[in-house]
Amino acid sequence: MPTLGLEMEMAIADRATGRSHAVGPFFRTLQAVKAARGERADLQEIDGRDIAVLTPGILSSLDNAFNNLESSIGPVEAGPGNLAELERRVRGELDAVCASLDREGATILNLSEHPNLPVDDAHYRRIRAPKPIYDYWNGTRGWNHAAGIDAKAQNSPSTGVDCADAVRALNTLLALSPALIALFANSPFEAGRPTGRKENRLTLWPRMFGGSVFPGDRALHSPPQQPFRDLADHFTWMFGPGTVMQCVPTGRQTAYKTLRDLYHIDAEPCLLDFLTAPGWSGRCIASGAESTVVPAMHHVEFLQFAGFLDARIRFRFRDGAFEVEEFLSAMSRPGGVEALFAERLDCCYMEGRAAGANFPDRELADLPDGRVADSVVISPSALQAGLLRNLGEAWRLAASIPWEALPALREAAIRDGLDGEAGEVALKPLCARLVEVAGRGLEAEEQWMLAYPLEVLRSGLTGADRALRDYERLSGTPGERTLAVAQTRAILWPPAGNPVPDRPGERFGTMGAPAFS
């Protein structure tokens, strides 16, 4: 069984009003809560502002702003029961986060974007996390980082894969991402009004990159015209001609958002060209100081975030000498990078980015089956783990979708959720097939974790559908109604259900279909 992890993003609101809430003493409170549980809890800050608490195996921090928390959980090592262990850690993290938010009158919303947060530049500057790379993105690259400042939030599972399977896993998740978008759609509002989309969150990328100074940036949130052939093809798409490399450190680092000593290369090469020269002149994004940057393999490792697809290949190199020339030589041979990385990587995993943030709320907790509320947060991890453990069948399902139809199918998922269709592909039956395939990749005692997507398929109601239904029942202005929806969509934690099913070995199927066997 592969290693597992989760990046859990959370839109934060004032419990009494539903308005977006930028956390205040939250991180010091969280540090105290975790310390009281007997955990080592280290506070982290930038420019005198608390931005994170680090405990063993969990980084509790910010995504883009103080109204959007993010908990990075894992890795949970491979082995029997590791999905249950991940769920246990997620549950413990939510216990601590919710207790800490409660002390400042705040809560997590069961929405993947705050429904009522008009943003101007002053508000953006006030609540944005103090991370130097955001000024670089806005200024040097011409991005619109403010497009995500209204707490657009995703549920991002990580699942380990072998290097040899990484590209097939990526192609599979990209092809099936419209189904994952549809199942977890949960953002039908923006700035106090309905948007006409079930998952408005995913309008982020074209808006963020639309004004980029470098045209290549605008291509890196859309899949290529055909599936990736191998890792060399993938790296050429992300780092090759037509792209301009992001700023980089001089030494080996991984925390790209929080570093100050990052250098924009004056000549603005693509990364693959950058690697071929002995050194380049660069300018520090924080101080403006000039320095010579010597290309190294840690720059490939550092810039692996540069693609913004619905799934990403992530990796970490083992310690020790690793020459750029080895990598460039491997890039010239079919399958060469896979063979090289099999020797050089400490880990390789898939990062899923299609599912919107969903959390248990009162309505879900009141359902007769307590597993529905209990499984909401862990279900994207269970689906991705099941698909990748059952990669042969998952790939066959993905291959049944014409690759050229993916942009239209993805847009249909964003706009219409389960009701979307493009060409001959309808999303609701595709979602049902996806859950069946993933279910066959899970152990019997893990299958309760699919209760939430099964309930979505049974009822035909995603989080977005339930929010829109509530909005239509309310009276008042659009702004008043969206805030009222936010108040009703506060997380209910702990949920009223049971943390594990009453019958751990029970198998259950989708839409009245046979069990996952």
Describe this structure in words.
The chain has a domain at 224-308 and 311-348. Residues 499-507 and 509-514 have low confidence and may be disordered. With 517 residues, it is an alpha+beta fold. Helix 5 crosses helix 15 and helix 5 (166-183) packs across helix 17. It contains 20 helices and 16 strands. The strands form four sheets. Strands 1, 2, 3, 4, 5, 6, 7, 13 and 14 form a nine-stranded antiparallel sheet that branches. A three-stranded antiparallel sheet has the order 10-11-12, with no helix packed on it. A hairpin with a 2-residue loop joins strand 15 and strand 16.
Strand content: 15-25%
Mean pLDDT: 94
| Cα end-to-end separation | 18 Å
Gross morphology is: globular
User: Quick one: how many beta strands?
Assistant: 16
Q: What is the C-alpha radius of gyration, as a whole number of Å?
A: 22 Å
Number of helices: 20
**Structural class computed from helices and strand pairing:** alpha+beta
Low-confidence stretches: 499-507, 509-514
User: Could you describe the largest sheet, including whether it forms a barrel?
Assistant: 9 strands, antiparallel
Percent helix: 25-40%
Q: Quick summary of this structure?
A:
The protein is of the alpha+beta class and 517 residues long. Helices cover 37% and strands 16% of the residues.
Features:
37% helix, single chain, alpha+beta, 517 residues, 16% strand
